[in-house]
Amino acid sequence: MDIKEVKDLTHDMAEGMLTFGAHWHVPFTMNQLGRHGVEGRETRQVSFGTHTGTQVDAPLHFIKDGKSIEQVSPEVLLGKVSIFDFSHKKKGDHVSLSDLEALTLSERVVFFFNWAQYWPDKEFYEGYPYFTEEAAKCLVEQGVKLIGFDSPSPDDPKTKLAGDVLGTDTDSPVHKILLSRDVAIAEYLANLDQLKGDFEGWNIAAMPLRLKGADGSPARIFLFR
Fold it and tell me: Quick check: 175 and 57 in contact, CB under 8 A?
């Protein structure tokens, strides 16, 4: 394949990087072990959660006995992608069924909200555009297998993920609609603004680590054509 252009959609992973503020997510750490001046080589110990930075969610993230990340087919994660400009969506807005009706959906879709402009500030988690449950069901019905976006979640950020909400039907319903139908979710995409509206003719490669039995993984995600 003659690849002429590549766009990296991946945020750097580094000490102090932004992570979701809950006890089921942990800070990223990286410590140097081997040193050129001592051991003659560099090595590092890295510690992170499965949903750190640019990432892919596997069904197991919300679906008991769902597929784990190494079971997500490479054919889902690699191939032609349709990219849609939803940067007109503002804080608190949502993607509705009517927003999708005029779109030609393919098996892999990416939504550009221009939300990465808020990374790495905590504002990234506040008021991002989300998908209604009806929109999520439409994506599934139209045969979408991979959905990506430059925000942290497809679910309504106004829902407080704490206390009695956790594990109920109101806890991340859009995640559950998508993942229950084996739709892989690529979150925290970066650099979509660098396309400058040139959204045609791209392929996507979303490459999570092959962590056996894991519910997701940080991923190197890029577009190419």
Answer: yes
From the list 196, 127, 152, the residue with the least C-alpha distance to 54 is 152
Q: Which two tokens stand for residue 160?
A: 């407080």
Check whether 50 has a pLDDT greater than 80. Answer: yes
pTM tops 0.85: yes
Output the domain CATH number for residue 110: 3.50.30.50
Mean pLDDT of 48-77: 98
Question: pLDDT tens-digit profile of 154-181?
Answer: 999 999 888 889 999 999 999 999 999 9
Residue 131 lies in a domain: yes
Per-residue b or e along 87-124, where b marks 16 or more CB atoms closer than 10 Å to that residue's CB: bebeeeeebeeebbeeeebbbbbbbbbbbbebbeeeeb
**Among 143, 156, 176, which residue's Cα sits nearest to residue 60?**
176
**Average per-residue pLDDT for the chain:** 97
- Domain range for 70 is 6-10+50-224
Number of separate domains in the chain: 1
Residue 16 domain flag: no
In a domain, 29, yes or no: no
**Confidence category of residue 205, pLDDT binned at 50, 70, 90:** very high
**What's the whole-number mean pLDDT along residues 52-80?**
98
**Measured between alpha carbons, how far is 188 from 211 in angstroms, rounded to an integer?**
19
